[in-house]
Design a protein that fits this description.
This protein is mainly alpha-helical. The protein has one domain: Four Helix Bundle (Hemerythrin (Met), subunit A) (Up-down Bundle), CATH 1.20.120. It is built from six helices and no strands. α1 packs antiparallel against α6. The longest helix is centred in the first third of the chain and has 26 residues.
Amino acid sequence: MYDWNDYLKIAYDILNNNSIDSLDETRFRVSISRAYYAVFHNARILCESRKELKKAYAQGGGEHEQVYNKLRQVNKGSKEFISKCHSIANNLKMLKCERQNADYVADTEITKRQAELHYQKSERSLRAIEELKNL
C-alpha cells in the first residue's frame, strides 16, 4: 500500500530545492499542494479505519468535504478522541483553503514563508492523525 506520508517528504524537498530559483513561486505552490494531500489522504484512511468515524454523518459534498464532515461531526469515543478529530478537521479545512489558493488563484503571490508555515501545519496534522490511531 502506498504511504501518503511520502507526499509530505516530497513537499519538503520541493520547498527546499534552491537549484531552480527561477521557479520559486511554482515550487511553493506545488509544495503546499502535496503537503495538503498528505494530510487529506491520511485523514481519509483514518475515517475508513475507525468505527467512530465510519458511522459519523458526512452529508453531501465530494470526498474532501465528507472527510472533513466526519471528523468535525464525530460524537462517539473518548473526549480526547473527539477533540482531536475536531482539531484535525479544522486544520484540514484551513490547509485545503491554502491549497486551493495555491492551485487556482494566479493573482495572489505565494511566498516561501507561506509554504513553510503550510508545511509545518501539515506536519502537526499528520502527527495528530498518528496519535488518533493509537487512542
